[in-house]
Amino acid sequence: MSKIKSLEDLRRLRVEQERNEITRQNTGVQVIVGMGTCGIAAGARDAMLTILEEINKRNLKVNITQTGCIGMCQHEPLIDVIIPGEDRITYGLVTKDIARKIVAEHIVNNNIVKEAVIGRIEKQ
Ligand code: FES
User: Fold this and answer.
1) Cis peptide before 77 (omega within 30 of 0)
2) Which DSSP symbol is given to 2?
3) Ligand 1 center to residue 26 CA distance, Å?
4) pLDDT tens digits, residue range 102-113?
5) How remote is the CA of residue 71 from the centroid of ligand 1, in Å?
């Protein structure tokens, strides 16, 4: 990355990053795992590893990222699934079994795992 020397450089960088963000959102499936202290204490590592195993097993192209505390300890481990053009789904109390279902059913077949959904943000 080049050095930022002016306000114009900063604006250009911002536009570039926004463009990258849009490209990422429009081209791939995203899984976001809550890895705050409460998430980890509740088993987020197991959920994350299970998701990774299932994704690797099927050779899927999925962008997996981590996030921190979002203030819903009681529902940890929390996992968000974002499929371009679909609602963003937040899953809670994600066990290894549910993590496997999320990959097999939601990510592969686009069937939401209803029993584990705790939130939904409608597509924009
Ligand atoms: S530490 Fe659990 S919700 Fe913040």
Assistant:
1) yes
2) P
3) 30
4) 999 999 999 999
5) 5
pTM of the predicted protein model: 0.77
Count of other CB atoms within 10 angstroms of residue 3 = 5
Q: What angle do CA 63, 66, 68 make, to 5 degrees?
A: 155
Report phi then psi at 57, rounded to 5: -55, -40
β-pair partners for 66: 33
Whether the CB-CB separation of 85 and 59 falls below 8 Å is answered with no
Closest approach atom of ligand 1 to CA 76: 2
With a 6 Å cutoff on the Cβ, whether 37 touches ligand 1 is yes
Whether 64 and 48 have beta carbons less than 8 Å apart is answered as: yes
Residue matched to tokens 């429009």: 26
